[in-house]
Specification:
Immunoglobulin-like; 2 domains; 184 residues; alpha+beta
């Protein structure tokens, strides 16, 4: 009886290890991740509004129809990125993802406390190359350090009523991301 109990415990432990390993390996093995899906319709370093979700072959699955969404696929290899977006009357959020869909920063209109969300996105190496006097002016702007050189910025604006969707779409369409060349 004790031998059977050890076999069952061993099988459960092995099954748990296999399950955990599979779950952790899936993001690395996925071929249709968000970045790959959006590469077909979103150019690099340009904000592109996404179409409203439909039941027919969506660009991104599980999108909430109450939100207008725009995306910027960024590449920091040529310089830092200046990003700005106005905020809507209801709710606006900006989320940053790595190339492998790992969220590493998010901000919303309430946290920003302004009518626009403005920030600079750069890698740790680019941040270390800022001139010393830039740290003084950095208090006036938000600097985000990206763990990777490529990734996604997703802007979402809530339309609490169907009649306000046009306002939410204008908000996400007015978002901007542009590359600032590296200083020589």
């Amino acid at each position: 009886m004790i031998r059977l109990t050890f076999w069952i415990l061993g099988a459960l432990l092995l099954g748990g290890i296999v399950h955990l390993s599979t779950v952790l390996a899936m993001p690395q093995a996925a071929t249709q991740d968000a970045y790959s899906r959006l590469a077909r319709v979103v150019p690099i370093n340009k904000v592109t509004p996404l179409a409203a979700p439909t039941g027919q072959d969506p660009i991104m699955p599980f999108m909430d129809p109450a939100f207008a969404v725009s995306v910027c696929r960024y590449d920091l290899s040529q310089g830092t990125l200046k990003f700005s977006t106005p905020v809507s009357q209801a709710y606006t959020s900006v989320t940053f993802y790595t190339r492998k869909s790992v969220a590493y920063y998010a901000i919303n209109d309430r946290a920003a406390g302004r009518r626009t969300i403005e920030l600079d996105l750069m890698t740790l190496q680019q941040r270390s190359q800022l001139p010393p006097q830039e740290d003084v002016t950095a208090a006036d702007r938000l600097i985000i350090e990206s763990p990777t050189t490529t990734g996604l910025i997703v802007v979402r604006a809530l339309a609490p009523e169907p009649g306000l969707m046009a306002m939410a779409r204008r908000t996400v369409a007015d978002a901007r991301c542009r590359v600032e060349p590296l200083p020589q």
